[in-house]
Every structure is written in structure tokens, then in C-alpha cells.
Prior knowledge:
By secondary structure, this protein is an alpha+beta fold. The protein folds into 2 domains: 5-121, Aminopeptidase, CATH 3.40.630.30; 132-290, 3-Layer(aba) Sandwich (Aminopeptidase). 29% of the residues lie in helices and 28% in strands. It is built from 8 helices and 12 strands. The two termini are 39 Å apart.
Amino acid sequence: xxxxxxxxxxxxxxxxxxxxxxxxxxxxxxxxxxxxxxxxxxxxxxxxxxxxxxxxxxxxxxxxxxxxxxxxxxxxxxxxxxxxxxxxxxxxxxxxxxxxxxxxxxxxxxxxxxxxxxxxxxxxxxxxxxxxxxxxxxxxxxxxxxxxxxxxxxxxxxxxxxxxxxxxxxxxxxxxxxxxxxxxxxxxxxxxxxxxxxxxxxxxxxxxxxxxxxxxxxxxxxxxxxxxxxxxxxxxxxxxxxxxxxxxxxxxxxxxxxxxxxxxxxxxxxxxxxxxxxxxxxxxxxxxxxxxxxxxxxxxxx
Length: 302
């Protein structure tokens, strides 16, 4: 294959977006897992996304590889299966690192991705567990919340800012989730899978704020792609002031019950490897590890 040429852009034309999506689909078919996450897929077309796109070209029409790098330093990359083992992945990896990436995702922790990262001196710095379990009899029954709390569904046009505030506090140390903006939320609300009836808000009914509203204590946002038999625990968060109030278990059960009533057969979720409390909660609820995603970055200085 000819020398690899890398082009960078902050916004991609429609034909480039189509080419990247097709390339990523071919890679997913070959690897059995998506190399490009939802956040980077949304960034392909969002005019508000702070992502630098890198397209790799090598001696034939159209891109043979794609990488994205966000403002926080996270990066992802994918190479067309027909162009692998020809230096494309290495060229993209070096380009995102030279551009300031602090960590590069290896979705599925595939051997080839591990080998490429190690050859460039990178080491695992973060793990993201994908856990799942089958829907069981009784899942459709909503759990009882602790006294003083109630649940309702998200109301577009009313709840955006309150949710963003609690999400920011709940995920203050989370490099992606905690930095979501109103534009990011609106991008997700515009997707065909968004359903406010599956976006569950838990309120503290023992107190009121200005205007008479109850403060938001926690939330469980579920997701199901149209036609899919798998539902997702998309995001679960608890305001720091309400942690330790026995909300974790019932909060998980609320979303599980909603998904079970939709008729899904399996439920999956994502949780960071260092979030031992959440891992324990989900394992008690019957979830087991299915896939591991790993971030590779520079080793810490001695």
C-alpha cells in the first residue's frame, strides 16, 4: 500500500461522513464489535461537537481509516479491514497522539489493538465493562423507593438544566459523561431511539425548591434502539448529596422494569472498572461481564 496520508478537519462533508460510516460498518462486521462509539458517531454530523476528525488515505479512492479526538483528549480509530497490516492504524494512532490525545479506546480489547498500542509504548489506563443479563420473570415489577422519594418521567423543555446539573455532579470525575452540555443532551434527544418515558427521574419529595419543584436526587435513563430485543441501562446517576440513601438498588430496578415492560429479551449496561460500588450493585442484580473496552495511554511518570 502507498504511503499513508492523514487529513484533519473539525467538520466533515456529507460524502466523507457516509464513507466513514460505511468503513466503520465493514470493520464492525469483521471484528464483531463497533470501533466507533456513540459519542464519536454523533460528532460526525453535529456542528456543536468539539472533535477533530482524521481521515487516512492510501493509494485508492476514499478513506481507508478514521480517527476522532475530542477536546478532553479521548480518541478512537478504525481501519478498513481491506487496508489492515499496512501501517494505516499506526499512522492514525501517532497522529492523534501528536495532536494531544491522552488516551485511545480499544473497543472489545481486541488482540490487534492491544499489540498496536503496546508497540507505541502505551499501557492500559482505564477499563469500561459491558455487562448484561437476560430479562427474568418479575423484572417488570417496579421496586419500592425509600421513603421520601418518588419517580416521574423526564419532560423535554422542563428538565434539561436540572438533569445536566445533577449529571455533572454525579459524574464529576468521569471524563465523558460529566462534561455533557445542553447541546450534547439535545443531540441525544434528537435520535430515533430517544423516549422520555424511559428517562426516569427520582425526586426528593421531602423538600421543595423555588417554584415548588422537588429537587432531583437521581435518575435512570434507559435506551432501546428501534426494533432491538436488547435494552440498555444508558446512564444512572445519583446526586452526591443523596448517595448512601439506599437508592442504588431501586434505581437500577426502575429502569429494568421499564425495559422489561417494553418486551426486550436482554439488558446491557456500561460501568467503569474502578467504580467498584456500581459493579457490585449490578452483579447483585444478576449482570455479568460480556465485553471489555480499554483505554490505552502513556504510562505515568515514575
